[in-house]
Amino acid sequence: MHLFRSALGVKCGWRVIALLLLASGGMALRSAEAVDLTVDSGTTTISSASSYGNTNVATSASDLATLAVTTSGTLTNSGDLAVGYSGSGTLNVTGGSVTNTIGYVGYRAGCTASTPRS
């Protein structure tokens, strides 16, 4: 498995067919297999249709991370969504939608997680 880390602290493990960097500074990944999204620091914004295998926010105890899903944004996971997996994570959905198989908020003991309402 290859690893890509952006300047915002976003890691994606993938088996790549193509990686496209968009002019807006976002990225689109196209693969025959599901891609996982991991947000370990800063804020990552989903503002269009995005599909992943699993999404994890704040995977290490020292992580402070936010995943924002804005108007017109749809986050679809074929697997799990874990907010505050081990660290301090926030899922902020403002007009968008999130779909997943299983969702965890505050996954491990000692972590913090929130899902603020707007």
| Amino- and carboxy-terminal Cα gap | 38 Å
Mean pLDDT: 74
- What is the strand content? over 45%
N to C succession of SSEs = EEEEEEEEEEEEEEE
The total beta strand count reads 15
Strand order of the largest sheet: 1-2-5-8-11-14
Low-confidence spans: 1-32
Helix-residue proportion:
under 10%
Shape: globular
Characterize the main sheet: 6 strands, mixed
Number of separate helices: 0
The value of Rg in angstroms is: 13 Å
Describe the structure.
- The chain has 118 residues and is mostly beta strands.
- 0% of the residues lie in helices and 56% in strands.
- It is built from no helices and 15 strands.
- It is globular.
- Mean pLDDT is 74; it is low at 1-32.
Write a concise keyword list for the protein shown above.
118 residues; mainly beta; six-stranded mixed β-sheet; globular; disordered N terminus
Map the helices and strands.
Elements (H helix, E strand, L loop, with lengths): L1 E4 L4 E5 L3 E4 L5 E4 L5 E4 L1 E6 L2 E4 L2 E3 L6 E7 L3 E4 L2 E4 L4 E7 L2 E3 L2 E4 L6 E3 L4
Parallel strand pairs: 5-8, 6-9, 7-10, 8-11, 9-12, 10-13, 11-14, 12-15
Antiparallel strand pairs: 1-2, 2-5, 3-4
